[in-house]
Every structure is written in structure tokens, then in C-alpha cells.
Write a structure and sequence with these properties.
about 500 residues; alpha+beta; Glutamine Phosphoribosylpyrophosphate, subunit 1, domain 1; seven-stranded antiparallel beta sheet; 19 strands
Length: about 500
Amino acid sequence: MPDVAIAAPNEAAADAGEQVARSGGNAVDAALAAVLVTMVNEIGIVSLSSGGFITVQPQDGSAPQTVDGWMEMPGRGRDLGGGTWDIHTDYGDGVTATIGPGSVAAHGSVAAFGAAHARWGRLPWREIVAPSIDVARSGFRLGSASRYYLDHVHDLIFGWDDESDAAVHDEDGLVTTELIVLPDLVGSLEQIAEQGPSALHTGDLAKLLSADVIARGGILGPDDLAAYRPVVRPSLLSTVGDWTFGTNPPPSVGGVCVTAMLRMLDGRPYGEWDGDDVEHLIRVQRAVLGHRLRVLDHTDDLERDAAAFLELVDHDHLAVLESGSTAHVSATDSDGGACSVTVSSGYSSGMIAKGTGIWLNNCLGEQELNARGLHGLPPGTRLLSNMAPTVGRHVDGSAIAIGSPGADRITTAIVQALAGFVNGRMGLQQAINHPRVHVHRAGRPEEVVKTETDLTMYYGGVAATLRRHDGHLVAAADPRRDGAVRLVRADPQRGPDAV
């Protein structure tokens, strides 16, 4: 039984990771159990109808790998279009999103969990799912991230579907402060525990999901769910000092942006962030995020164009500089394993599939990630993603897992925390706490350089865990969200590790 460090978005998720670790689970087991709980209690942020990525540093020190469980375009054999409408909210500095049954993409996160568990997990699958069943059965109250989001969209997005409306509102039509219990969700989770991830793709649960979407005018059919497969890829690597980091490769754009920014920072900050360091960081963000908006979001071959961009970054940093709703869990263990998991359901379609208790995603309707339009991709095509779950290994054997929610702030939050930790030699928690900057709409006429004065969830919610070379564990969660950490020791007689 290894020692395990867990950093999660809420206390119940952290408890789940701890429960699994105390049963003999490793970092992968603990991270997956924690994320499954967020799919129950982080309403509006993530659900079982989600996509995500898992980046793992294997315990044997071999190269990191990323499991792609991101969303796919559905619609096999169907006429595309319909079943949607647009909403605008002030959430996230202003968002226009497309919701409704036609915005629901083919989910893949739980399928990816199964693939990661089969390769690197230790405990039986049922034990990984058990804590989420307990939370669903007992009920839960909204956390701060869900409440903040629902305060903006509880009527716009969650009010049009009767079951959804009843679940999130009290009798006065306000966002509920009571325990939320969805009995059908308990049954759905029990099917997933018993049948494995296939329950969401070929089982009765999958049939209920697709049937309700199709009946209400959407395009997610049973063939789309049955055809879905998670993909395991070598992680995208970058070396910073004595660390080698692995993050999400194409077709996600998030990992490409993290890798480019880390390489272009050139070892900054050289201590505490100073004015020159911040100015350089802004230039780096402007170059990378601007290139993304101009090229990477519109390419027909992201792998080709991402490789060309990273080659230019490596060849001549200066030339590049002069050209112009997610949840995350991290876990590491004393055997040297690290696991970083980021998942999302978009802004939510607003509907609960009948008989399932599962809020469905709206990832086809995330307009900032669908440059080709709502139904502009061929069925079976993976969508674009900002996600960048990242792991790292030091030459001395230390291992780290880090990631963040936060839409287009995911990459800038991760890079600033990592740069402060590695280059600035800050403590992990200090590096996460440090105020951030973000270049919004980089390179556009409406570009704004946003500088954080008060810690707010707009700038992300980094969660990170670290195994030091001597085996001691560290866990750090972002004060910008209700983060929670746990350190589980195989030998409880040992003194406490640093948090």
C-alpha cells in the first residue's frame, strides 16, 4: 500500500480519494474515485455526461501517457441541426453558448477512466465507483463553484427542463440550499459499477440517454455511443530545468499551449515574480494564445500545425514573441506514480436524461471551442479542448501532478504555477497562491490584459500533488475554489508531511 497525496475540488471528492487510498489504492485509483464524486456533486461544472483527459506518470519511471476521453461529434446517419438555442451570460467575463438537446456531444470521460484503471489501477473497479454512489445516495449541497455558476445561469440553462429545474431550485425559484438527491443517478452509478464504463456506451443506460436526446430533437444516437473509444497517446513532453513534463497532446490544444509557454518562459521567474518577469509572461501569453486563436483553433490538421509551432518556439523564441466549466484532480503516490485528471461537461445542455439522473453536456455548443460551428465536424471527430492535465518527473525521482479548470485560463494558470514552483523555487502552495495575469482575446482588437488583484475563480483552480525525492508527499489546492487535500500514509506512525 503506497502513501498517496490527493488534491481535489471539494471535501467529498477528497474523502473519496482518501477512502480508496486507505483501501490500498494508488494515485490513479484515488484520482479516478475523486473525479467520479465531482461528477455527482459539481452540478453545472461536470457530470457523467462529460469528456476528459488523464495524464499518468507510471510508477516505473517510463514516459508519461495521456488517455483521451474527450467529446466526439455525434450524428451518424442523421440529419444535423436543430434542437438548440443560444443564451448569453455574464459568467466567465461574458459567454454566449448554445444549449438544448442538439448541443449534446458523445461523452468519453468514464470510458477513459476504465482504460486508465485497466493499465495502472490496483483496486477493483467497483471500489473506485463506490464513493460516488454513497454521495449520490446520501445527497449533497452545492459547493461554491457550482453555486457561483448557477447564480448566473439557473434559469437560462437549468430552468427549461422540468427535472433539472426542480433539482436546482427551491419553492421560491431560488438556487437551492438544501440537500440534492437524484435517485435515478444512484441507479446509473450502480450500473457503471457493475458493468463498467460500457454501461454508458452499449448498456441500458446508454440507450436511455440517446433515446431521450433523439426524442427531444438532438443527434446523439446509440451508434455514436457504441462507436466511442478512448485513445492512449504518448504525452507531449517539455523539459524545464531538471524536470520533464508530460501534458495533453493534440487533438487537445491546451497541452500545446502549456508546452509552448513553458519553453518560451526561458527559466523565468528567476525568484519571486518581478515586473520584468510579468511583462515577459504577458508577451509569451500574447504570442501563444494569439497563435492559437489565429491558427490552431481553425486548422484541419492540429497535430501538423502544433508540431510546426513548437518547432518554431524551439528554434527562435524571439521570432514567436514578435509575431504577434471543468473540474480537476491531482494525485501522486510514494511509489513514484502521478495522475492528473481534468473533465468537463461544458456549460451543460440544461437537460437531465429521463430515467438516469444525469445532466447532459453541451460541448457542441461551446462556441469558443467550435470554430467550424455547432455541427460543423464529421461524426466521430474529436472536438477541440483547452484541457492540459500535466505530470512531471525530476531527475532525482520526484514526481508531480498538476492541472486546473478555467476555460481558456487553464493553460495560463498551470504555466504560472509551474513556473513559480520550478523556476522561482517557490513552495508548491505559494506558487499556486501567487496572483496571476491572463491575456484575454490575445492579438485581437479587443485584447485585454487581466491582472488579478483579489483571488477569484476566473483565474482557474489549480490542484497539484508532489512526491519529493525522499518519498515525502505534498498536496496543494487553489484558494480560488473550495479545494481540498488529503495525505494518506501506509504507516500512520510517521510524522506529518508538509501540505
